[in-house]
Specification:
This protein is an all-alpha fold. It is 62% helix and 2% strand. The chain has six helices and two strands. The radius of gyration is 17 Å and the shape is elongated.
């Protein structure tokens, strides 16, 4: 296992960045599979069941039970895969419980639902952008929900800071590719 320390050569730095992405892989999968779940014809009911609060939708039609459930399932599966490969097989992480992906996925969806709720309050239409919040808040809350289970992981804060910076860039890139491929309705 490589631990974060300065000075760090370029090879070690890039290895640590790859480890950070692997660490948060369940969050990326949760966020992605919530979008891919649109191909499933059932469970498309909005999480807010179409209800309003103070004359505005609580969340909107874009937040469905299907996306919530599939995101958590695939985020959890991704967490088990990361646990097995990076902890059991290769000893990359000193602490990474097999169930961590579940909690990371809950954190991801918490930020997503909170963002939708906030956007409805300030008048942003469903599917509309709330710059920076949309591109990284889910990573921050996913990692913070993981913290109680991995607080003794020596590189956690390096992963957290790296992902806080890297995630918006990756989100724009993958969002553009998903839009270009017809998976998303907007490029961001």
């Amino acid at each position: 296992m490589i631990e974060f320390s300065f000075p760090m050569d370029a090879g070690t730095f890039f290895t640590m960045v790859i480890y950070a992405i692997a660490f948060a892989f369940p969050i990326f999968m949760c966020n992605s599979f919530a979008n891919f779940s649109k191909i499933v014809p059932f469970l498309g009911t909005p999480v807010d069941f179409g209800k309003t609060w103070k004359g505005k939708r609580i969340l909107g039609d874009h937040k469905t039970w299907r996306g919530l459930i599939f995101g958590i399932i695939f985020g959890t599966i991704a967490g088990v895969i990361v646990w097995y490969v990076c902890t059991i097989q290769y000893d990359v992480f000193s602490v990474y419980p097999w169930y961590l992906g579940f909690f990371m996925s809950i954190g991801d969806h918490f930020a997503d639902l909170l963002g939708s709720f906030s956007k409805r309050r300030i008048g942003v239409k469903p599917g509309g952008a709330l710059p920076l919040y949309d591109q990284g808040s889910w990573m921050i809350t996913g990692m913070l929900l993981a913290l109680p289970f991995v607080c003794s992981e020596p590189n956690f804060w390096f992963y957290f800071v790296t992902l806080t910076i890297l995630t918006p860039l990756l989100h724009f890139l993958t969002g553009f590719l998903a839009y270009w491929g017809g998976i998303k309705d907007v490029w961001y």
